[in-house]
Amino acid sequence: MITIPTPPSGTFGSYKVAPPKKSIWPYLIVVAAVAVLAAGYYFFFYKNINLFLETPGITPAPPLTSLEIKLINMPELSLEVMDSAFYKSLKIYGALPVVADSLGRNNPFIPY
Predict the structure, then answer these.
(1) Residues sharing a CB contact under 8 Å with residue 14, sequence separation 6 or more, in sequence order
(2) From CA 31, how far away is CA 38, in angstroms rounded?
(3) What number is the average pLDDT over the span 84-104?
(4) CB 49 within 8 A of CB 43
(5) Cα 14–chain centre separation
(6) Do the Cβ atoms of 8 and 14 come closer than 8 Å?
(7) 0.85 exceeded by the pTM?
């Protein structure tokens, strides 16, 4: 009888432990650190960003518009409208102050 050697069928001797997967986190951390350092170098040396918190000079106010000039030249607010007969003839509808009654159900989540 002739025995033909065959490769293992996978039942006993052929199991191999899978190599552990490499984590991507160290690479991401290195890339993020390089990006932060590059951005800091660029903004510090090329954009001339001042690290001292100084306020910029005060800009002058924009010129006044014609409406604002008219309001400044007005001596005082005229209240003649409040004394007019038309204003006094207006009717009051409803009771003041308005009182809110109970609205809706006490517990809106209970079934009907």
Answers:
(1) 7, 8
(2) 10
(3) 83
(4) yes
(5) 57
(6) yes
(7) no
Distance of CA 89 to the CA centre of its chain: 51
Q: Which residues contact residue 7 at a Cβ distance below 8 angstroms, ignoring those fewer than 6 apart?
A: 14
Place of tokens 């308005």: 98
Q: Determine the pLDDT at residue 82.
A: 85
Task: Supply 55's token pair.
Answer: 């306020």
In this structure, are residues 64 and 72 in contact, taking their beta carbons and an 8 Å threshold? yes
Residue 34 pLDDT: 97
- Write a three-state SS string for the chain: CCCCCCCCCCCCCCCCCCCCCCCCHHHHHHHHHHHHHHHHHHHHHCCCCCCCCCCCCCCCCCCCCHHHHHHHHCCCCCCHHHHCHHHHCCCCCCCCCCCCCCCCCCCCCCCC
pLDDT digits (tens, 9 = 90+) for 31-69: 999 999 999 888 877 766 666 666 667 888 899 999 999
